[in-house]
Amino acid sequence: MNSNMEKPYVVGIDIGGTNTVFGIVDARGTIIASSSIKTSGYPTVEEYADEVCKSLLPLIIANGGVDKIRGIGIGAPNGNYYTGTIEFAPNLPWKGILPLAAMFEERLGIPTALTNDANAAAIGEMTYGAARGMKDFIMITLGTGVGSGIVINGQMVYGHDGFAGELGHVIARRDGRLCGCGRKGCLETYCSATGVARTAREFLAARTDASLLRNIPAENITSKDVYDAADIGLDNPGGRGAVREAIEYILAAQDKWEKIVASYEQAGQGDRQ
Q1: What are the DSSP calls for the chain, one per residue?
Q2: What are the pLDDT digits (tens) for 61-106?
Q3: 117-173 confidence digits (pLDDT tens)
Q4: Structural domains of the chain, with CATH
Q5: Could you tell me the pTM of the whole model?
Q6: Distance between CA atoms of 100 and 118, rounded to whole angstroms?
């Protein structure tokens, strides 16, 4: 019998800085079952792996057991495809080199592969999603951090050490915000979900404009709150102006706004709206 028929499912695990989502998927990419846990709250990575396996095992048993699972694929920040390890991930609570693929394989007895989460997303889109048929593209993921997966000529670009194309840690502003990686001004400190929330808090502190976000304690503001406020604002008078002001604030932080204004004024277009 064809091995794909004997083992028709795979397990996918997506590890993020906030949540870990996992599920059972068939060969067509259909999600058969899924669940999630919070990523933080576990003192050691071993305890975290135990909890994921504890939550995942009932899903596996309900769908035919371990014998029906062909393999496990893990997408994780700073995941190294070559070694199956997570290496010095700034947005995870455990530091150093974490042999996570080996941990899951040992606990569940299922072959396990691990890669960078954005690379996993790129492969998924190339196989089942918006990038089907594409041979050259970049997948950018936004969450606790900013990830990127680069595909050239139909092949994932890993680089010699497994960490090629980390756009989230390109310096966007010299001496800018401190990043979890230890450097300053990384793109993800501005463009990630946490970066967007941080910009909103700075915006509220620096200005007195009315905002729906002022109804939320500053320390509790999330990127979803910012999105929801902008979404409501666009449907109300002045909403687009509010969005424009947010863009102005970000550009001003990068010392670009005044240059843009000056170029418009030189062209005889002094209206900043």
Answers
A1: --HHHHS-EEEEEEE-SSEEEEEEEETT--EEEEEEEESSS-SSHHHHHHHHHHHHHHHHHHTT-GGGEEEEEEEETTEETTTTEEES-TTSSS-SEE-HHHHHHHHH-S-EEEEEHHHHHHHHHHHHSTTTT-SSEEEEEESSSEEEEEEETTEE---TTS-TT-GGGSBSSTT-SBPTTS-BSBTHHHHSHHHHHHHHHHHHHH-----GGGGS-GGG--HHHHHHHHHHHHTSTTHHHHHHHHHHHHHHHTT-HHHHHHHHHHTT-----
A2: 999 999 999 999 999 999 999 999 999 998 899 999 999 999 999 9
A3: 999 999 999 999 999 999 999 999 988 889 999 999 999 999 999 888 889 999 998
A4: 3-123 (3.30.420.40), 192-266 (no CATH)
A5: 0.76
A6: 17
59: its two tokens? 């899903």
